Amino acid sequence: MVKFPFKPAFAPAALALALSLAASAGHAADAGHAAEVDPRIGTGGDGHTFPGATVPFGMIQLSPDTAMPDFKHAYKWAAGYQYGDTSLLGFSHTHFSGSGHSDLGDVLVMPVAGEPKLDPGDPAQPGSGYRSRFSHDSEKVEAGYYAVTLSDYQVRAELTAGRRVGWHRYSFPAGQPAHLLLDLRPSIYDYPGKVLWSSLRVHPDGAVTGCRQTRGWAPGRELCFAMRFSQPLAARHLYDRETDVAYKGFKGPGHQPEDRDAQQGRAIVGVFDFGQLKQPLQVKVAISPVSEANALANLDTDGKGWDFDARRAEARAAWDQALSVVDIDAPKTERTSFYTSLYHAMLSPTLSMDVNGDYRGPDNAVHRAQGFEFHSTWSLWDVYRAQQPLMVLLQPQRSVDFVRSLIAAREASPFGILPVWAYQGLETWCMIGYHAVPVIADAYVKGIRGFDAKAGLDAMVASATYAPYGGLGEYMQRGYVPIDKEPEGASKTLEYAYDDWTIAQMAKAMGRGDVAATFAKRAGNWRNAYDAKTGFMRARKTDGAFREPFNPDVAGYGSDYTEGNAWQYSWYVPQDVAGLIAAMGGDQAFVGKLDSVFDAKVDPKQFAHVEDITGLIGWYAHGNEPSHHLAYLYDYAGAPWQTQKRLKQIMDSQYAPRPDGLAGNDDLGQMSAWYVFTALGFYPVAPGSDEYAIGRPFVAKATLHLHDGKRFTVSAAPFDDAHPYVGEVTLNGKPLDRVFLRHGEILAGGELHFRMQAQPNRNWGQAAEARPASMSAYAR
């Protein structure tokens, strides 16, 4: 996923992985589920995940970077690491997981044995800079831990993480002087002048602090850090590479032997010398979005002592606890895929608050949280669909903090609206819609409390009525976004209408009938995008006419749609699928057209100019979010057996436990959350409703350990490829004649059992009342 207010200059790149590693972690009865996670999944191809060390929703993502290319070539390296690369630039402390755009890569460090070089060098010319070659054979990748041997230095690097602190342990070869290089220049999605200013300071007690300000995806972002070493400094050299001035006695062309404790500029590099070490060098680093003083406080509060192995064990325990919410019965490869998906779904939004409660808001000012932990990193166009609903189900206490963070961000917004795509508190304005709205509505409708519901609803209404944003003024006036006034008008009309429906749902649950009526009416605006003549959703012009010429195959920037075409977007009415079915001519016509999406013969090269449209099955593009609910729509047309068929097609072809095992960007856990829900047998087609559309399970048994101690079990038998269809479903032993499950039924505990069979059951789910609810029919 990535959508900008401007046309990106990325050049699509193709990388075929020559190696595919099998899942490394087996299941042991006495081990936690962290042992079954393989963070390498998604590090190849277009998954854009990182392999390094982090903890659930942690502030630190300490991970290796193989490249930080310029903005024209950054797409493949959105997480800093590509599995096909053969050299490492170093280890930085902040990364996105699976995003369609790149930034971060802050506080890059590199251990160096021997004479240090000050610039990264060319990966095609080993020894030309400080980067080092490595082999995947030397990597050890686990949840909360990463290790690798740097071949050019023979340094064994180990990384682990806490919530605010990254921990390093470097074992240097005997007889070689040990150095740690700190480079404040590199940044993922780099370009000239991105670093506006940076500073570096060595304190009398040996601590190192600094800050840097960048004009990247979030303009004017400032991040500070604090660093301590387990060994005393023998010397330190602080450089401004922009002016080529060195301090503390480095003798080289153009360098001055001047000694300083601090350096400022736009190209700052520090080299810290430790002499020949008899034991590993440990380094601990904390970050802060606020100040050096706060970074030091974070370090000294969360980073006590020097017991690396204990910190590694704590990170492992944090993952074991987080992943223990679900136990599954499945073979090893499926367990790896499942628990890695659950792991990826629990990386964001990330903690973005210091130990004293300080955080930076979208106004770029410092605020202090009271009674909650502020989180940011919101890929809201993606995560509202499944990742946040999964947290509502499995991590309800965290959902309280997430919702409160969204409301707090709105209160600090100069525009008075909720975040669109934010990280470290700052807004990027990436993608379309106001999809913080369904995150809040879904949490409230499903019983999440502990936040100010009135403030939440006020924030939702404010976001939906902010006329300057994305053609909203025209939308409120006309009931659609005119394409001659605003790009991608069809997609915006449809997404706004869905968001409006979720406002109506929350308002109704709160007893706010006036607000509910207003936004329920707006939720019907999807009809203004539907062209009965062609059977597709299209963009209208100001005069009400559909834009011509029209080709449903066309996608990309400048079209009627956001990261998609008419085949992919004409199904985006999750709030009123029954209404869409009627508009398309009834069940049979609807199913036939939906079949034509999956069965079409499509050349993937058609989407070469739109990087995010990947994972094609016909026109269906699992590698991008607008398609994610399509397979479940058969449930709404009385053909749930078709949902079961399509889900198996997707699960078999779009996920695998290897580095290139994700069909597209994981988008901060959305693609992984889709996998988890689908493996469990149900999916939230319309977040903001308390219903899940039923598919079919992809594990023989799964037990959800719910927040209040209850258990909900999903089971299937016979469970094998010879029995891919659902014959009967029972809930707590009683036949379930409907193809949806209520959230409250899960929370009550019990068992959902699927009797599987070889042939489709074409009778189950036929009745209107058996289908999931829609806005214009079978309302419940």
UniProtKB/TrEMBL annotation:
GO terms for cellular component: cytosol. GO terms for biological process: carbohydrate metabolic process; glycoprotein catabolic process. It comes from the Bacteria. Residues 37-288 form the Glycosyl hydrolase family 92 N-terminal domain. Residues 1-28 form the signal peptide. GO terms for molecular function: carbohydrate binding; peptide-N4-(N-acetyl-beta-glucosaminyl)asparagine amidase activity. Gene3D superfamilies: 2.70.98.10, alpha-1,2-mannosidase (1.20.1050.60), alpha-1,2-mannosidases domains (1.20.1610.10), GH92 mannosidase domain (3.30.2080.10). Residues 294-757 form the Glycosyl hydrolase family domain. Keywords: Signal. NCBIfam families: aman2_put. This is Alpha-1,2-mannosidase, putative. The lineage of its organism: Bacteria, Pseudomonadati, Pseudomonadota, Gammaproteobacteria, Lysobacterales.
